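Render this sequence as a predicted structure.
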Amino acid sequence: MYLYKPQSTSHIVSTLLVLLCIALSGFQAEAQSSLTDQKLEIAKIEFKGNETFDSGTLKDIIVSRESPSGFSQFFYRTFGEKLGSKPEYLDPVTFDDDQKRLQAYYQENGFYDAAIIGNTRIDSVNHTVKLMFAITENKRSLIDSVSYRGIETLPEDLRLKIVTEPIIFRGSPYIESRAIAEIARILELLGNHGYPMARFDPDRSGKYKSSSTKNFSIILVFLPGQQYHFGDVSIHVDPPRADITDNLSLRQLDFESGEIYSHEKKVSSERNLNRIGLFESAHIEHRVLDTSTASVVPIDIFARPRPRNELLPEIIASNENGALNLGLGLGYTNHNFFGDARTFNTRVRARTQSLRELFEGKGFRDPDVVAALDLEFQVLQPYLFTRSLSGSWTSSIGVEKQNSYILSILRNRVGLSKQFATYTYGFLDWTLERVNPEFLLDTVTIQTLLSAFREEDKPQFNSILTFTIQRDKTNDIFSPTDGFFHSLSLEESGILPKLLVRDRATTHTPFTEYYKVTLFGRWYNDLTPNRFNILAVKLKSGYQNKYGESKYLAVRIPLNRRFFAGGSSSVRGWKARELGAMPDELVQFGGNFIFEGSAELRVNHFRGFGKLGFIKFDNIWGVYFLDFGNIWSDISDFKMKEIAIAAGFGFRYDTFFGPFRVDYGFRLYDPKEEVGRQTIFRKQFWGETFSNGVIHFGIGHAF
């Protein structure tokens, strides 16, 4: 028989409390589940305890991203992802994987005992979440020893290069990428010292961690194979030309038959062949290596020559003197002129910045016309005593027309060019130049500038020596996105005439003793991983001055050798050659000291939009720039408050010959305005600043 026994009151109460707690916990769990099921926008990502790597570096490692600003999200909703950015939301799976990514990154950099804990802080009111990563780095593993094996039979000098110039060494942190780079370094050394078949042996190599010190002992094993030498060189010219002898190619090689094989010399020799201008293309190949035969590497050169004679009409669109020049030209080129890989060029060119004024006004002598006409003859000698030294001879006669004067220029120049290193070149030019100015000024203007006019209105015959050294590590000749370009130019005039002319008073054509120094730099940085947003920066400074007797004589540095500012490649709030710190009437004569710079942000806004007819949206770039600078009559006249500042925006369209450019610049700070109205903040933006802006056209980037 089953008897029912009533429970006590206290027992009933306790049972009810337990049931209530279970119900409440279930409700809380359901509420939490409901909250996490909502889309939570990532408001912030924060790292704590990261002593070795900054937060910016760690943010690049993870996939989760902070939501962009409300302004950027507005543009995304209105125009799409090309102009804005979408909001970022928490993905629990991605968040868990981010912890693993950080863990792997720390291990790759020697922190094998690092502890990384991810946490979230939810704002249920605003539906946002803050991601937090707590990092305990612990001890970093170092390298106790590095052992290289398989190199015992190598020549002593090669063994020394391997062991004395390491990327990883005892006492340095163990970083996986550096170990990989060390393997690549040694294989490159072996490939450049006669071991093109060398390889790394991963099966017998390894890293061994000490249980006590947590440090590593590294063993790297290599299989060099046998040493090879360059063998016979066979040259294949297609189509064959009787005037192109084998010697023209052989002398451009950085190696000879019998030398130890070097991949680096093979690549540099191919570069030399393509540089001489004799071939449309040239490449060097080595035949398949057979270890059963003699240890030589037979070499084949395959070259396609340029046409012997070329007659080419030209349509000129160039960015010269800070403005777009349009014109026509005709050129003739003879490749292998009288043999020896020599090139002969002759060209006649006519170009102008004032096409409409040229035909509607008074023609070439119209004060509003800027134009030039020249005839040039040039001989290029690519091999001069050595393959790294080339020479040139150029003779030209031309007329340069500016608004207020015409320069007749007769020029003869001999130049040398030498490659000092892979990215470093030097240029030495000796120029004999006769400049005859003719001024188109009215009588009133001449009277106003009487003293300056008397010095300017004289022909000159100068002997000019110029030395330029430049280092170019940009990654593209037309549209660089990374790297830098540095240049130093030194110019002198007067030494040779001074040695030849005893009495300057008897000289019919005066010359000027002067020196000139110009520094120029360009820097490029891709702010994104995919060439979407490029930052470009330029700085230029130059100074010139007379010396010797010329300091006390009524002669000037020739007009075509002075500095000018303003224009599409200078400070773009001013027209070409219209910016100067001197009085307005003297700006046309240029200056002797220049300081200017620019910063541009180049954004590929329309990437992925496809094409419309022949227009490819991927080729369109938006540009936003800030320019500053000016010219002064002398460096002693320089004042910070006279540095003009301009800003603006532009458009680029990439073509096979470089980008077509349109820029609109306006003045942020005009030092010549009356006091109180010099800055943009003291003027009406639309009525004065923006409406008085300048439109510039050009081919190629501004710098």
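Summary. Residues 1-36 have pLDDT under 50 and may be disordered. The longest strand covers residues 405-421.
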